[in-house]
Amino acid sequence: MIRLAIVAVCFVALSGAIVGRMVYVNINDRDFLQEQGDLRTIRLERINAHRGMIRDRLGKPLAISSPVVSLWANPNELLSSSSDLNQLATMLKVDPEEFADRLENSRSRSFVYLRRHMPPPEAEKILSLSLPGLYSEKEYHRFYPAGEVAAHLVGVTNIDDRGQEGVELAFDQWLTGVPGKKKVLKNLYGDIVADIMPVADAVPGRDIELAMDLRLQYLAYRELKAAIQRHEAQSGSIIVLDVASGSVLAMANQPSYNPNNRQRLDIATVRNRAVTDAFEPGSTLKPFTVAVALESGSHHPLSRIDTSPGFVRVDDKTIPDPRDMGELNLGDILAHSSQVGISKLALTLDPFAVRDLLADVGIGQIPGSGFPGESQGYLPNHRRWTDIERATLAYGYGVTTTPLQLANAYLAIARGGVRKQITLLAEEQTSTIRVMSEQTASQLTRMLAKVVSDGTGGQAHIQGYTVAGKTGTVRKLGESGYEDTRHLAFFAGFAPVQDPELVAVVMINDPAGDANGGGSVAAPVFGSVMSGAMRILKVAPDQQVAMSKGGGDAHG
Amino acid sequence: MATESAVMPMQERCPVDMLTLACVCVLLAVGVLLVASASSEISAREYGNTLYLVARHIVFVGLSVSLGFLTLMIPLDLWQRSGWLLVLMSYLVLVAVLVPGIGKEVNGSMRWIPLGFFSLQGSEFVKLMMIMFVASYLTVPEHRERALGFAKALAAIVGVVALLLLQPDLGSAVVVFSAYFGVMFLSGVPLRFLLPVIVASVASLAVLILIAPYRLERILAFFDPWKHQYEGGYQLTQALIAFGRGDWFGMGVGNSIQKLFFLPEAHTDFVYSILVEELGLLSAIIVLLVFMVLVLRALWIAYIAFQRSMTFHGLVACGIALLIGIQALINMGVNVGALPTKGLTLPLLSFGGNSLLATMMMIAVLLRVEYELRDGASSIAQVAKRRRRTENAS
Q1: What is the CATH number of domain A214-257+274-536?
Q2: Which of A284, A304, B90, B230 is most buried, taking the most CB atoms under 10 A from its CB?
Q3: Which residues of A belong to the active site?
Q4: Given a cut of 70, is residue B393 above it in pLDDT?
Q5: How many angstroms separate the CA of residue A87 from the nearest CA in chain B?
């Protein structure tokens, strides 16, 4: 009986010891244990923020984010759960065998995307299989309603919702919201069991209103594309600026791409050539040499330059005109785009003054529109100018500029000699600076109007409106110097002449066939876009009668 | 009829011990509640139905109660006379589980014989059968007082322990050895026989731990679980976190976080931790007290039996008290980190058909012992015994 008592006492003592241990753990270690527990179960979960919208100046959407669901898996869990992977593969619309292989190969990882950016109802259907190891994440998918038409300016985001190109990249920070955080309770497999509390709400990104007018953008894109196809050209760009605000109303390039489907993307189509590609602008630069001549005081619009016998030797180079045009005044030099005339004129001028004016209107300067990858172009800055350097600069060789820079330079003329900083945004006020006298600008404008009414730019003419502008036909630089058969066709100008509303630059690269000049290839595009734009913007016509003299083929 | 029932003695109307029964009912009820909560997540994940495992558990509660009723019908006398037969059956079962093709390997251990609907865990039933053998063998005074007799009993026990270690199942081996040793101690085996056994068994335990790296890892983890939490200490740290969360009054039924797969075996070996997490430390202490009441009641029944010189009855009650008590204490000790982690169920509470069936059989045997101690019942038993003896003599 003593032994029985001993056993009973042992039991009671051991029970007491266990109770004691439990009470000790509870009192002594409770806080530590609770903290350890929280460390293992409470997680901060990211709440993706909604990316701001991009809209045109009238509020039309250019880039929209819509909620989508991305499915991901923990391959090991999914594979070891012996669930029906074939069914899952079928629902994901992938080959079951490939799918199984892919999972098998990534067994060592704990996170593999199965499919990203699915429409929520479709993802819901798959999630309702409630397979272990299958998870979802709420994300946003970017959709571009204007597609390829506005692709270059608007740009694109990558699948992680970060801006990669264009405005999406330039204003990424502005558009991107701040992701929120919430405290959640997760089980061992990372499933969220309960939301505990939001730590920080997601701050949605802000919208951007571009200066672009989608109607003009469509028009410009359509006309450019048609011209590129008609002339079997390599590429092309068009820019339309609002004179008053200096903002970009339209900016299109060919070739373009579909930002909504980038599966077979040719990287060459992504570039916003109007901003990134610098070319020799050729004759479109001539008006600025004329402007320097007018500013210098030693010339006036009717000053005459003898271009006989149709060529001039400068240093050891011969600069030809297509024919002997005899004596020309400054306006005629522009209207007929005489190389000889502008070269002779340039040699009477201070080369530094010409260069400075070009720099003042933005040639060789970063345009500062904020667009990513803006090209600076090249403006020579010689300490001593040889005659041939002075002559070539006057007719736009040995210097490079992007279509955007060229448009900016013509904007200065259209604004009466005041350069204005270009902007992509609807409501940005930009700085201005006077670069030539008002008188010079208006004299130049009248000359440029004659280019369209009487000269090489005839096809830029539009019904009911006066147009000022300048053609440019540039021989492309090939492997062995300038080529005879490959050209860049330019037209830069503005309308209406008296009170300019719009500036536009058209550049067509390497048109095939006989028509390859600025006057025959670029000017018609300018004309049709401007004519449509005037109507869309309801600009009052300043000309009653249509009078068109078919301009000759541009040269030089 | 009415008059007849009126004159029937109290114990006739209440044929089993109410206190034992009450303890068992409380433990079974708490068990169902905890298994329902602790197994819900794993049921959902593995079987697609949150109630799958608790439904199984309830089915086994029903089966074990039925088995208990059947066992209650068996006179102790029958068990007593089957001593060596039970040893034979125990060895057969324990050998069978080790035979590939009959036994099934789970997590590196050969413990189960698959029977379709469920897998039979032989060792659970061997516990009871061997108790019956040890008790009946030691009832004979020469067996416990002479060296040879004691050695025979010891050999039978060591054989069982060895077979358990082959599975390997150190936990069960420790439980059965301690319980049988306790029965030998209580039967009055001289201390000069017992002391060498204690020394030898402690030494072999130490060797067994040292030769198995995973056991050593668990021991090390036991001393500093937080340092070894990604090795042997993982379960223990998760169990302790449950203790920390539960505090005195618990997080409420169904609110356990550890059952979200953090604590492995939440519904089986570590159900006690979930008890603390959901119902609090006070409830856990109450459950421990209920176990103690059950064990002490069994010892009390043994005391009465010894007083009436019904040695076999007494030793059986002792054995059952020791088996249930030791296993419960080890399980709780493991849960609270007072003992190194061992895979042992908490009797009557944990999920697990074998453990439930075997434990309910033990409870039924205990109730039968108490029943046969009653004046009327024991006289009937003695009459039957006497009759058999005379039959044998003639």
Answers
A1: 3.40.710.10
A2: A284
A3: 283
A4: no
A5: 17
